[in-house]
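Notebook p. 47: complex prediction with zinc ion.
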Amino acid sequence: MTSGHYRRFFCALVLAAALFGAQPARSQENLFSQDVETTKIAEGVYTFRHGFARNIFLVTSEGVIVTDPLSPTSARLMRQEIAKITDLPVKYVVYSHQHWDHVLGGKIFKDEGAAFVSHKNCAAHFERDPHPDLVPPDLTFEGNYTLELGDSKLELLYFGRNHGDCLTVMRPNGASILYIVDLVTPGRTSWATMPDYYPLDYVRTLKELEALANFDQMIAGHGLVPLAPKSAVTERRAYMEALMSAVKKEIDTGAPFNQIAGAIDLPEFRYLAGYDQNIKGNAERMVYYYLMGW
Ligand SMILES: [Zn+2]
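Predicted complex, structure tokens below:
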């Protein structure tokens, strides 16, 4: 990082600490950073990060496959990063799921002729909840699908409902590396009240990922670390199971519903980034689940 980066990093940490009571020494993260970083993961496979959001892109012999554009600003910055690597056009944009914090800003790629790809369930969300900065998909798929371009391929893996109902995990070029958005943010708790997570299906999916062959490392949709070990999935699954078990126990003992979330503490997971800010919200989500089946 340049000295300017360090200055912004430090200022943002102080701001984060003030807003959330976070301890900078624990999180070592800059949630407010707007810096850009492109990292080569394997031959033809890159991860692009803008601030706290991350995607991957593939440079193939016949053009570029981009995943989530993230936002109009991020997409513009990513386009500049791609141009430093290849003169070939972006041919495809593949959405990981339907949430606006990942899928906005694709117009810059649409304008150069890219085709947009998503699971069919995402397309239904986009029709129901359109956004002016969202480019709807041209191609949709069900189940698993492999997108091929030139000498490369991007496997799209679907695990059913978990975080939303169209989340797609991606495997570039048959590698043992998966791009996993929002199901796992390595070294962190879940976020806030866990919007659009279905607890049982979520844990089921994490277990299915753990059991997946040819999977050693992951690239997450959020976070500063470009590549994390597969154990990040296990860590998140263990956290979710401990959280659900603790909430269930409180409900079973007849604790007043509105007091349960605030009483939950998981000392063995206090080391996770975001713990202090998120544990109550995460627990609240589980209270809803056990009260409502949702
Ligand atoms: Zn999401």
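Notes: The radius of gyration is 19 Å. The first strand starts at residue 36 and ends at 42.
Next step: compare against the earlier run before touching the bench.
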